[in-house]
Every structure is written in structure tokens, then in C-alpha cells.
Specification:
The protein has about 475 residues and is mainly alpha-helical. About 65% of the residues lie in helices and about 0% in strands.
Length: about 475
Amino acid sequence: MQKRIVSYYVGQLFIILAFLMTLPLAVAFIDKDTRSSNAFALSMIVTVCFGLLLRFISRQLNVNINSISRKEAYGIVAFSWIGSGILGGLPFLFTGDLNSLSSSTFETISGLTTTGATVFSNVEVLSRAINIWRVTMHWVGGMGIVVLFVAIFPQLGLGGKYLFRSESSGNNSESIKPRIKQTALRLWWIYVFFTALCAVLLYLSGMNVFDSVLHSFSTLSTGGFSNKNLSLGFYKNPMAEWIVIVFMLIGGTSFNLYYGLFRGDLKRIFMNIEARFFIFLNIIVGSVVFIINTGLSSQSWHHDLRSAYFQTVAVSSTTGLMTADFDLYPATAKYLLFLCMFIGGCAGSTAGGLKVSRVIIVFKRCWQELRLTLHPQEVVSTKLGHQTISRWILSSTFIFVCTYFMLYLVGVFIMFSFGMDWETASSSVVACFSSVGPGFGAVGPTMNYEFVHPVGKYVLCFYMIAGRLEIFVLLSIFTPHFWRKG
């Protein structure tokens, strides 16, 4: 790996991060919030200085900054996420809202990875500037800060492809455009369109302008941060809840498909097996959760139906917004939601998890192996829709799934060693690994992660970044080969 190239582009990304702080800074000025405006101004200065320093070092060493290989791309993506997690947390420290680096880093990485796990017990006492910063990190992290970087800078060439693929999620083999910069730009424009549409609809449903924008950022990014302790349940607004359900499903489905939608190719969406499975899974699980909870609530049946679907879609799309405490559900309903945490959304979406496409491939291949035990001479091929899956993709899919569960078990053991009970330990790891946010037990929907040991918070930060970067991008920086030149 050429460290100077990595240093240069990580520095560029830090400067972009500082620029993103202008939104909460503007909100602080509008609110005449001196404490927040000073905190964000100082954070911007520190972040820009770090970025310029890294750029200056690379420029002075006369390296070819455009020669980005796969190894440099992995380094840029991994270190930009780690560094952004630290620098993006400075406003929390400078305002005094948080008083430890572990907590500020956890909150920031949870924001950027769209996990939605929080260390705040009362978000309603936070300034509007801090709350808009929390969801801004969601929104930028949803599509990817590196994807934004690729869209902005045209000189990356082949390196842009490696950067784009390093941060893109899942096995999505569909391509919008052969040129990576055009692809990144189109994805961002689609993302902006749906965010704006969600904000307008939430405003028309009765939310004020600030809350509608804030929750549209959190919804499309499948993040989960809110400025209300009761999340979306605070509003008791059925129309807003249905709107959010629809846009959580949109966020959990591949954005590549929406490009076809804007071109009038509706068939592309309805024929996509992953999108159909994702919608079907939410309908089935939501219906089962509703049936299980029937008679346990004093509310009307349509309230319970809406609540069941909201919690199901929030978990399966890894959004984390809530209107009810699903930790109080009967065991069967909780186990169903627990399984949905592992599956996650579609490849190419803003959602986390294993991804629906991988789950389909694994189950199809297992079924084929069962058939081959009975008919060993039969020639079979694994298909995802009409596309035949190559042996290489099959192998990489099984390796990914196995690695995911091995890391998950290691994480559960580590969190268990910090004194967590089994339910809290097992759900906290998958909630962070799959970018869901709330889990069960002490990290349930009405709880938070502040009680977690500082080392435990850093461990969960690792899982949040690993899940967001599809595991191997982050793991690669821990190998000796990564640090060798060339």
C-alpha cells in the first residue's frame, strides 16, 4: 500500500466532513445558540487542519495521487471511516453533551454507518444543531461519504471504481452506467429526490419543517436517530407512520432499481427477485407479529396492524425508528425480529445486514445440495432471478456468511465478558453489525448504549464499520500484506 496516496485522499475526505458541519452551524446561528455554534466552528477548524495536514504531507512527497489500486482504495475507505468517527464526534465533546471519547466516537460511527444506536438517554435536551448533525451523518453515511467523494472528484479514474465498490453494499451486480462517476452522481440525485419527497409528505402529514427534514434524513438512510425520546411514536400520527414505512422499504431496496423506474422501466423493479423477496418477507413477518400480538393491546386492530408492520419494516430495513417497544413482544415475535436483524435489506440499498441476495443464494444452494444427495447425476446451476450465479460468487457468498457468523460469535463472547446478560450481548452485536441500532434487553428500543464499558463501545464501533464496509475491507487493514508496498 502506498501510504501517501491514502493520506492525501483521507485528508480530502476530512475536508468534506468539515464542510458538512456547515448545516448544523447554520442551524445554531439561526437559533442564536452560541454554545453549539462555537462547538461546530471549532470542530470545523480542527477537522480542516487535519485534512490539510494529510494533503500537505502527500503533496510534499511528490506522489502520483491518481494511481489508486485496490489496496489503496481499501485503505482510504477504512481510514476515512475510522478518522471521521473521531473527528465527527468533536461537536459532542465541545458542547459538553458527551464527556468521553468512547461515547462521542460511538455516537458518530453509529451515525455515519446508519446504525442508530445511541448513548444519549434524553435526545430532547440536545440542541437542534446537535440533532441535525446526528441525522446529517446518517444521511451522508447512508449512500456513503466515499461515494459522494467519487461523485465530486472526476480525476479518480480506475481508482474511483475501487473506491466505489469498496463502500457499496452487497452482491449487487447490476450496473447503472459504465462510468463510476456518473453512477455515483445518479445514485445521489435519486437519493436526494426520495429524501425531499419524504420530507414534503411528512410535513403535509402534520410535522413541522425541522422535524420532517430530520426524520426524512433518518428514514431514507435507514438510520434511526430521532430528536424525540419516543422516536416516531412521539407524534401519534398514523399518516406519518405509513409514510415512513413506505420510505423505509424504499431505503431498504436497491437504488439501482430506481434508476430504471425513472426511465419508465417499471418491469425491472417488479421482476427483481431480491426486491420481491424483501417486500414479501416484511408482509409475512409483519402479519405474523400482528397475529401474535392480537388481544395483548387495548388499542384498535388497525393501530396494532400498523404498529406490527412499522416495527417489522424498521428492523428488516435496519432503520431503527420505533413507534412501540418490541422488547415487550411475546418471545416468538421477538425471535422473528431477531432473525430479520441478520437478513437486513437488499444489496445496493442503504440498509445493513447480510443482504437478502446472499440469503437467497445460500438457501438455494443448500436446497440444490439436498437434491444432489438424491440425484447425484443431476446438473444444477444456482440462479438469482434469471442470472446464473458463478462459482466465484457462490464461494465468496458462503465465505462472507461464515465470516459474518464467526465474527458475530466472537463479538457476543466479548460483550458477555463485560457483564452483559445473554439477551443484551447477543442482540447488541447483531444490532451494531447489521446497522439496526436497538436490540433487546438493556439495549432495547427504549434504552441506550451509554452503560456499555468504554472498551465495549470501541468493539461495537468495529462491528458497525465492519458491517457497513462488508467486513473484508476493514479486516484487510489488519493483515501484513496490506502494509507492504506494491
